[in-house]
Batch of 4 targets.
Target 1
Amino acid sequence: MAADNNFDPRRESLVMEMRTNWDPGLGNLSDTDKEWLSQAVHEQPAKAAKLDYERSHTGFVREITVTVADVERLYRSRVG
């Protein structure tokens, strides 16, 4: 399925698996940072900068590529 980067409530209701990719511009994040960032970005997928749904046998796989903008937004919300 082509990436359309749009949040889709219908597909979202059928998500069976989640994947997280990391933008190369992020450099070396610690495993601890990657863990909480991945969890946080998947809690609000509509706000993710790069979102894709891949069809699977049982539903959809939500794939988010975490970008610098996502990290900045999540750190602001955590600190602020």
Target 2
Amino acid sequence: MTAVIDLAKFKAKAKLNDRYAKQLKRLQAADIPTTSIEVAVNGAVSNLAKASTSALVIYGEPQSGKTEMMICLTAKLLDQGHKIIVHLMNDSVDLLTQNLRRFKTSGLAPGPRNSSELLQTSNGQKPAELVVFCKKNARDLEKLIDRLNGTGKIVVIDDEADYATPNSKINKGTKTTINDLVGQLIGSDGFYVGVTATPARLDLNNTFKNDTEKWVSFPPHAKYTGQDVFFPLDKKVSYRLTYLQQGGNSQEARDALVRFLVTVAYLNKVVNDEEKNYTMLVHTSGKKLDHEADRTTIEEAVHALTEADSTDFDTLVTNVYATAQQLYPAADPDELTGYVVENASRTSLVVLNSERDRIAAGDSATEPSSPFTIIIGGNIVSRGVTFPNLLSMFFTRNVQHKLQQDTYIQRARMFGARGAYLEHFELTIPTQLYADWHRCFVFHRLALATVRSELGSPVWIGDSRVSVASDPSIDKATVALDKGEMSFGMFDYAVELDQIVLGDPSSIVTLDALRAKLGNDALPQFLIDYIKAVMAGGGGTLAIHTASTIANYGSTANHAAISRDKGFMGKSQLEPKKFPTAVHHVKIFYNANGRAKLFYKYKGSLQFIQNLA
């Protein structure tokens, strides 16, 4: 007798649901915290529903787990009925392969596809749901737009959204090819979610009319080591920071290699229960010829360690032994040197600067395949690509003029979950480059404090060495290039605040007292720490002024938002006779309704940039 099949039951199973809950459960089972992910996903879904435009931005820290967040966001959007979700990646096979593999192994349904896979299916085949990955190049985007024509509303999730997508021809009244094609992909009824660690360009470019008040913060997880660790305000680092006086020559590269080899030996012989593979990243240039020179330097050194009869062997082994004694005086230098010599022939050397190199290296080019894995590369290693077990970074990639803030923030490939071996991590870098890079992150952190206030447009900061974003990408029609001041969250004004100020108007202690009264949103701790650090280095004095009403500014001010295109703090407000040496100025302004904001102005070379749209 043939059993009766309950088709309704199987039809119900075919209608997938609870995918978001399953992804959270997967992560929690792997002991991966999901609180930050849930904050970002719920915020994004909520803001998409109520945003006045179809575009929003999720911003987080470099290498802070955005891929897992995007997997969970995709699952949530599918659960809510969105049928077609397109993930855009930089035009890098490494990044596409890495992210697609992680999406597939997550168990997400429907199974994610590469756009090239989709194009191989019949045009008449229209899946009920689709998750597809596409590189941001004109050819792939044009084919995908044609293939998805007529499939319905599309949600575009743009990883590293500030790269390639913004319209760098905004001031010429036309569009770049990629910006135009991404706009066509979104269509008139689709949605755009930009994901990035450096959102300034998206704001200043007005990319797809995204609204900063609807931006969503993706806070880093508890095990994350980022700018606070690698670029602390007091510059007291908890890892191995090795300064170079020049740009880094071949001998300095060999010395950095030896320190990496010795550190791996120590970890695998003394610390780890079982042998682990580690990576050294060499990033000196964007030119392929320079990469070949780096390869030659590393290869010759490694080869010498495998040729016991060569004179170079004696020199290098002596260097390894001396380095072991210096770095780990309590360990046995014979044991560490022996490990290096015995395993030198296992060294894996990968050059990543083109698709051809990536194909030759395999799908897991960035995964360390031996205890001594050395990766050399240029622009391809600067964005998005993750380097597990990155233990050493030889970084000399400098610029002749200004550092572009977003580019150098993205180059911080050492960020991530490095805590297990942080004290052994080494960054080798020219002194001036570290100082500029440090300043990039200080400015970035201050700017993000204004984003989190959720009250109007954020203020981005640059100076003579650091630019906020590529100049052609800044919409000159709506952006004020030097407002000169920044403000934070709104609060209720009280006369007693002036009494606090008058107690000692030049003291950091007074700022601490104001913060205790107003809270962190109105006066971020980071601003106080920043002023304190600059003053400690001889960077001028502090002036905290008594509060003023904005009633006299008339129609030139937005009284409800307590903002003014030209700023509030002119010469008279700075009180130069009372505070002749002050460069840090803090002042409260309030409106007729008793609402107030605290403003900060730096009297120096800083440039404050704000989108007034």
Target 3
Amino acid sequence: MLDLQATIHVQINPHPTMKLESIIGQLFILGFNGPSIDPTHRIVADIRDRNLGGVILFDKLLAKNEARNNITGPAQVKKLTISLQGHATTPLLVAIDQEGGMVKRLKAETGFPETASASDLGDHDDPTLTAIHAGCTAQTLNHLGINFNLAPVVDLNIFPGNPVIGKIKRSFSDDPETVIRHATIWIQEHKKLNILSCLKHFPGHGSSRTDSHLGFTDISTSWQEKELTPFKRLIAPASQTRVESLMLGHLFNRNLDPQYPATLSRIVIQDLLRTQIGFNGVVITDDLQMKAITDKYGLEESVCLALAAGADMVIVGNNLEYDPDFLKKIIPAIISAVKEKRIPERRICEAWQRVKNMKKYLSGSNRKRSD
């Protein structure tokens, strides 16, 4: 048993002995306010004192109706990422949603290259064109010091009127082979520059009729098993590329789990994704501030349920709502959940091991990729 008042001894370098609080900090990716930071900024305290695992950058701050947030131009973003990493003792994930098309945080009006949507690339179905666009995105991120792109979307475009996928052109195609072909190119182009990628949204968001940002999303009657195909093929050890992480969608499917949405479901994460499909990379939640989750479970309970179910990293964007003290408050709550056995002790250590393994591949690491 772990002594929660002492330290956890895990054979992981470069920190063979770490306090539980520091391990928990590594399991979070947080958003924060502003285009710059100084030593008094709350995110600096999270990085320095709570060993925060990563940050996520947004161009807008929706919670305060502000048109500008972390991104105002190339030079500013590069300076910001350098400042963030300067406060970290463990390499920091600097994440962004830069899918292309309508879903992008780096926009032409703030000095960044134009990007094509996944739908447009899939329609052209030209591998060279996809490689050019994916390579341009990866080069931009690498120049800025952004090492984690929360893309590609591998949802099938089953319902073109889907408000959060099909309607805004986030899917390569309704055909699994087309999705796999272009997602593979996307991942390969990012790997050339040691930019991490993330498949999303497991187990498939393409058939949904509602937006999980806004409320409960039930795919029980619309989801098709073929939606798993891109995930299975891109995860397989024999695939041309192996992706380091996968994002869970806030999707309820009573045929998979009659009680919980995928983000909070042990059945979906452990039984389906880990055991049946064989994924051993980092499992990341979609933003837990989205109303599909918070309206029913609340943020603290959602975090604990997600970690207990098998999620390795939790995203709290601090964009839909803003709480600069979130990490300071959630770490004691997780420690209490471990003491009360609501989160198994081994889950925290498993998650940390996977996060640490993924960080070996970060841009600037001395360690070469093995795949």
Target 4
Amino acid sequence: MVGYIVLALLIALIAVIVVRTLRFKPLPQTPVEHTEVEIDAEKAARDLSDMIRCKTVSHADASLDDDSEFLKFEMLLPTLFPKVFYNCEYERLSSRALIFRWKGETNAAPVAFLAHFDVVDVNESEWSKPAFDGIIENGEIWGRGALDTKSTLLSVLSAAETRISEGFVPERDYYFCFGGDEEVSGGGAPSIVEELGRRGIKPCLVLDEGGAIVDNVFPGVSKPCALVGIGEKGNWNLQLKIASKGGHASAPPADSPLDILAYACRRIHDHPFKFRITPPAKEMLRNLAPHSSPLYRTIFANLWLFAPVLNLLTRKQGGELNALMRTTVAFTMAQGSSGANVLPSSASLVMNVRLLEGDTKESALARIKRLVNKPSVEYIPLVGSDPSRSSPTDSMGYIALERAIKESFPDVLVSPYLMIAGSDSRHYLKISDNVYRFSGMYLSAEERGMIHGKDERISVKKLADTIAFYYRLIGILQDI
């Protein structure tokens, strides 16, 4: 009898799994027509090359910045985009905070397009070509900032320049907000937000860097995916430090500072933060999982049963999918003594904590303290921010953005996602509920590795496609 009951329950379980999987179908899509846009790709390439030749490297210590290079970049813009400067109000809050206002004919809610023109430094010896020469070769523009994000800034202004030259007059105000210290979490973007807030400006759409069109980003999905960031993980650094008497390594104590820090690392590594499916991850699963292979579709359609399996897989594999599902900790810096035979008088390590929505700096610190549980460890919170709140996917801004993506890249799947890196966009949540992160371009895994890496470059075609994307988006926002 018991055997029959078990068999019946097993059959019922399998039936539920099969039915839920069969019902887990792709969301209905509204067809859109791909429209051709003529872009002067050669001019765009030359313009980006000129921008790259401005060595706008930002440093945590601002005294190391070369202000003349930032001024050079600023003075370059009106020569590249004369119609934008003639038709838009231009305001320089500082050398690191530039605002353009393209005035609309009505009081419709405004739009803000963001980018940053500062870049991270380079190790020239690792590059195949000079990082700040803006070389154009074999259909590619080389140099620091080619992807992150001078190409985005150029695309925004090029799209506006083209629209203006065609006699286009927007119904709503457009704000082009460009920061010059995003890479060091500087004050440029916050000062822009403060000024827009003071004026009572509440954009219906804020669009910044972040998501892109990528391949092989979701298990079992072969089609390219356009990922739109609707939220952003928190980014926080925490230092663990231990002081001791030091001494000679020939007579070590039972537990040296490095012993204790190694123990702390192991405890934190072996006890990862809780697996959670937040609203952005849930929407991503609903949009992309129905397009995955049968095995993965079965798992994602039945997370009520298979969530522990997904937890185990993500924890074991690490990477982007794991980062979408939990707060992560990466140990990035460590310091001990200056000699191989010297016990350190103090030792420290720094961890970078990427906070999932629902966690905070305070809750993460409390958890880490409980795990380590060593009275000799000092916890020193460094710079950081809590997670941003998520933006809706049924807003006018998101709908327009989705349509522009489909018109520009008709063969891709569009999905919300959680941005695991950081951007200036988080500041704009003070003045808008509709903040999204999408870069408007295809990025291969190799190209994503070039961001902050070596040999950064973008193809002329991809640059032209990004300009066309912003051009279409401006037109869609006129009609919606």
